[in-house]
């Protein structure tokens, strides 16, 4: 039981009287402690003594009265809610006593109690009287504390539904020593006759189990490192494959167009463009090829010389790592216009004036501007014993061997011209070589060079004409390395020159298709077509056939 002390005056006799059943304040014999609380109200003091019997928790109860066995005594001592002596203020004691009396009156007279307190207040007062909190009631009734709190607040909307609510009220009423049927009836009266909303069953979510934290074991670390390494290698290989498969890009930004006409006084132009970083840029122009290298951004530039007329440039890009060229070279044409009244300009680079040659195959080359073609004429001037003349006009020398036929060659776009594979074949003597450049307007310009030819040894020019011919050549008795031991097949139009100290011997598979020029003197074909023959050339003796094979 729980004993609450009021004042210290006469507290022991009054406690004994409360335990045995004493007289109340009106002089009547009090009930036993297990029937109802015994209240002593002293005339003086602010404290009140109240003996409150402790009721067993749960749905079942043992008989009323004090513990009679040692086991019960031990259980009572171990119970945290065992009978204890509490000192409360008079106001608290009176409040609890009044609440206790109201609950007992409502238990005896349900209608009167229900009218006095609402169901939530009644449940709250009963739990307070029982001396338990919501969490203790949750453990005892197996009903969640939030549902019990909703019942005590009258917030039935927070409950799962009417069926569950009635079950909760029934069990809670039994736990609080209230009449379950009367409690359910009061709940129905207070709720009213309004049709309850459709029950929605809400299944509480299970309490989530905490997930274990991420653990890094040596195996996981090694696997992650291997994965990163494999991915990096794959990316690197992919980049390399793309680089080797894709040719370098090439774009010319200056000039923007493929064909550009410059001013008449232009002498140079700067080509600019972009490619891959470090690319090798090659520009083919008149007289050779120039190289440039793209910088780290891929930009490149090159300044080239231009002349009057058409200037063509072929631009290509090469990847230095893969050796791949651009998909298509870029052609740029720069045109410098001519002055309409301007005559051609001519220069001869070879031969120089007054040069003496030891063989008669003389190549002539030079440059011309504002000209479309160049004609070359060689004129015999006399024997080579005297010094060559040095005049600047065409001249006719004394009677001698006829000169070769005039040669006409075109002027290239870059202004160069040359005799190429058809050099002048001159015999021994002094010669004047006159070069004339002309244009479409009929204007021309001429220059003359004087040369002398004095052969030493044997100079033999072999020309194939009218078909193919196989030849084999010995120079001074030794096989010539240009044709080899097995010989060589020459095609129509090919020309070879052989020079020896004493002799040159030639075996041909078709004598009629092989023409000879010895020391500048044309001998023509020495046999018939399709007939293999061998000829020995050893001046001053005339050519002679041999059986050398």
Q: Could you explain the architecture of this structure?
A:
The protein is α+β, with helices and mostly antiparallel strands and 549 residues long. The protein has 4 domains: 2-191, lambda repressor-like DNA-binding domains (434 Repressor (Amino-terminal Domain), Orthogonal Bundle), CATH 1.10.260; 250-336, Immunoglobulin-like, CATH 2.60.40; 345-453, Immunoglobulins (Immunoglobulin-like, Sandwich); 458-546, no CATH class. It is 23% helix and 31% strand. The chain has 10 helices and 32 strands. Strands 24, 25, 26, 28, 31 and 32 form a 6-stranded antiparallel beta sheet that branches. A hairpin with a 6-residue loop joins strand 31 (533-537) and strand 32. The longest helix is centred in the middle third of the chain and has 28 residues, at 218-245. The termini are far apart. Mean pLDDT is 76; it is low at 1-96, 107-115 and 386-398.
Give the topology, please.
Layout: E1 2-5, H1 11-20, E2 38-40, E3 49-52, H2 70-78, E4 85-87, H3 90-108, H4 110-116, H5 119-130, H6 134-141, H7 145-153, H8 162-175, H9 180-191, H10 218-245, E5 250-254, E6 259-261, E7 268-275, E8 280-285, E9 288-293, E10 299-305, E11 309-318, E12 330-336, E13 345-350, E14 355-357, E15 361-362, E16 365-369, E17 373-382, E18 407-410, E19 416-418, E20 424-425, E21 429-438, E22 444-453, E23 458-464, E24 469-475, E25 478-479, E26 488-490, E27 495-500, E28 504-508, E29 514-518, E30 521-525, E31 533-537, E32 544-546
Keywords:
single chain, 549 residues, alpha+beta, 434 Repressor (Amino-terminal Domain), Immunoglobulin-like, 4 domains, six-stranded antiparallel sheet, rod-shaped, disordered N terminus
